[in-house]
Prior knowledge:
The structure holds two protein chains of two kinds. By secondary structure, chain A is mainly β. Chain A has helices at residues 4-18, 24-32, 163-169, 221-232, 330-334; strands spanning 35-37, 59-72, 79-85, 93-97, 101-108, 119-120, 139-146, 151-156, 173-179, 184-185, 191-192, 196-205, 239-242, 255-258, 262-269, 276-279, 283-287, 297-300, 309-316, 321-327, 339-345. Chain A folds into two domains: 32-181, Sandwich (Immunoglobulin-like), CATH 2.60.40; 198-345, Immunoglobulin-like (Sandwich). By secondary structure, chain B is α+β, with helices and mostly antiparallel strands. Chain B has a single domain (2-289), classed as Alpha-Beta Complex (paralog of FGE (formylglycine-generating enzyme)). Chain B contains seven helices and twelve strands. Chain B has helices spanning 2-15, 34-39, 87-95, 119-133, 142-149, 165-176, 277-289; strands at 42-45, 48-53, 57-60, 63-65, 69-74, 78-81, 137-138, 206-219, 225-238, 243-246, 265-267, 271-272. In chain B, strands 3, 4, 8, 9, 10 and 11 form a six-stranded mixed sheet that branches. A two-stranded antiparallel sheet of chain B has the order 1-6.
Amino acid sequence: MMTRRETLLGAALTSLVLTAPAFAAAADDIGKLPRQKIDLVAPPFVHAHQQATKEGPKVIEFKMVIQEKEVVIDDDGTKFQAMTFNGSMPGPLMVVHQNDYVELTLVNPASNTMPHNIDFHASTGALGGGALTLINPGEQVVLRFKADRTGVFVYHCAPGGNMIPWHVVSGMNGAIMVLPREGLKDRDGKPLHYDRVYYIGEQDMYVPKDESGKYKTYGSPAESYTDTVEVMRKLIPTHEVFNGRVGALTGKNAMTAKVGETVLIVHSQANRDTRPHLIGGHGDYVWETGKFSNPPETNLETWFIRGGSAGAALYTFKQPGVYAYVNHNLIEAVELGATAHFKVDGTWNDDLMKQVSAPGPIPNAPSN
Amino acid sequence: MLLALKLKIAVAALAGFATPLAVAPLVIDRGGDRALDAQQAIVEIAPGAISYRLSGEFTRGGRQVEAPKGALRFDRPVAIMLHQVSAADYQLCVDDGACRAMTAGTAIRADRPAIEVSWHDASAYAEWLSAKTGVIYRLPTDAEWAYAAASRFKDDGLSTDSTDPSVRWIARYVRESEIDRAAAALRGFGGFGANERGLLDLAGNVWEWTSTCFVRTALGDDGRALNHTSNCGVRIAEGQHRAYVTDFIRDAKAGGCSAGLPPIHLGFRLVREPNTPMALLRKQFARAAS
Ligand SMILES: [Cu+2]
């Protein structure tokens, strides 16, 4: 079913194709650039990349296959009709350098049921590419855009009208990191490096319940639509999770680091505000709005990620142990699921913290 | 042997913390619903001994140490339920107005355990069943649970003398991470198999409440208990790992500051006391002391 808006977008697309010769010359120059193909990996991991590069701009080729599938989103086995970029919620983090060209092949296999597209907040024009990428099941499209500004940016599906928020909170969101060619820097221009990078995509979910209060299950995304929108419109999520399910980044899946290592944490939320906090640690350098041309703030306790944006925090672990990384709306962290763990190995530093006296009875107080 | 002796001392110390006993009027009621009592599938475990690591936290010289472990003898048989209390049985108590209703939408089935019950819910059920049958039913102590669970009981010792608090912390986290949290679907009784005593589903995906409080004990250099503090607002739930859970919690959830991993489900099974005058006396004492 095409909405009026989609029809208009379709018309815009046609006129764009007709005017294509106008930028054919530029396209030829791009054709001479070196090309690099990158295989994406599922979050929280990030494909191998250079933090700084002396090489000139390239065309970076990515491919994502859209997958509609049923997933389990909590330990109670709640089933969810997910729509995903490349099979994961969030979609994979793409990393390029400023002035590289991102060339994405987006595939919508015939086994899917719905049209999808992609809107890159990092790109310029055509609704972030959304107007040029709407594909039906059984189709694919190739979009190229110039990563002309640095930062971490959200991408998401935006197939028009009511479909937009529904596809986003069903899983179709992710992020791209456009690094400065010379790498990250602090406010004084001193280079900053990371030993590890993790990508955390936070997502609000709205799962309908039946009369008895049990989460309902559906055979397909379309069957879940009407009930789901009813829950969405109340704006109270039933789940608020990192990487697609409650506990996706805890236990065996906890993120790891070592004392002395510097970790870059990229955090996106495509739909709703969040406020990451590392319990027992800090944000040494934080690009709260996620854009590297602005100087990073330092020594933050909690940082704010506006709905529809991504941020980045750099932290060097100083103490071993298990850290909780949470949305510091603690109701959302504990009750709704927005909690991850870091397991950090190393040697304890008594100077930073010491239990001077272990818990015991209060001296000079009558004991029970 | 020395360790066993120390353990005995520590156990005695732990047993001794209860407030002074007040003797309540003793009423021996031999009435009750014998049919309901007969319906309870009970396994009687003969007297014997197990190797048991004490619950709670222990410090020595102001720092946390591994809990003492030793032989624990049971001179009397332990009669304990074959399986966890079923949702259908728990519902009888709810229908009687003595127990809090289960979470909306819970299937009232005779072959599935009652879950999402707090320690108070479990205790209320035990009270109700005792009153109804005229036979004393109660939650097992942690030691009794361990005795009944035998090889299903998980020793939670973490041998580390490190002064680095993160070593113990990470070791516990890694061990608790072994739990397959995705396997939360309830199974019918027997779905997690029987142990060598014939008891069903111990250390499956339902943790079982015990009557044991959270106790922190300071040990002297000789291993004797110097002092302790107890918190009976936190009770031990036994299962794939020994969990310390706030008594009014029905559904222990992951996340937040406590970066540990909680039980998947909370349920319970009960111990049946032999209906001797001594047992009834003990019961009266226990009630007066709590
Ligand atoms: Cu879509």
